[in-house]
Specification:
Helices cover 22% and strands 28% of the residues. It is an alpha/beta fold and 193 residues long. It has a single domain, classed as Dihydrofolate Reductase, subunit A.
Amino acid sequence: MRVLVGPDTEDLATLYAAPRRPWLRVNMVSTVDGAATGDSGRSGSINNAVDKVVFDHLRATCDVVVVGAGTARAEDYGPAVRPIVVVSRSGDLPAGLRGATDVAVEPLDDPVAFRQSLVDRGWTTILCEGGPSLLHDLLAGGVVDELCTTTVPRLVGGGGPRIVAGPAIDVPLTLHTLVEQEGTLLARWFVAR
């Protein structure tokens, strides 16, 4: 485990390098009291500048972004630099992504087959940005390699969602890296196999 305080942005390539390919990482943010959203119902209302630097780095270095349709709607997703795959049971694209050229919509009937379909397209560094139900399904399906978490130094209370939503699961993790900057904790957790 590496513990660092205040890394420069040049360190991010080393800190967040995927140890092998294919590699599926999930990036989630929460408050100290475990809330995955603020009072707006969006994770964007709890993230901060430190989280944004890592968020931007992970997006810039992945081959594809995967997101649940509910999260894409709630967070008002629009076109991005990387291709986006929206996971949707209904097959509907959120309004902000309709008409975008690098967007696909797919169901998640089998997480193993879903991951393999991404790899078969040449997308070997896969970044999932949630939401909580999609993270649950990917973890339960055994296809997540890494969970990147940002814990922002805030307490929001309330009954909002956590980063994982769904039936109980037990997924052992190993802490790979922990970085503190301006009170924000950035962690890389590897899924124990």
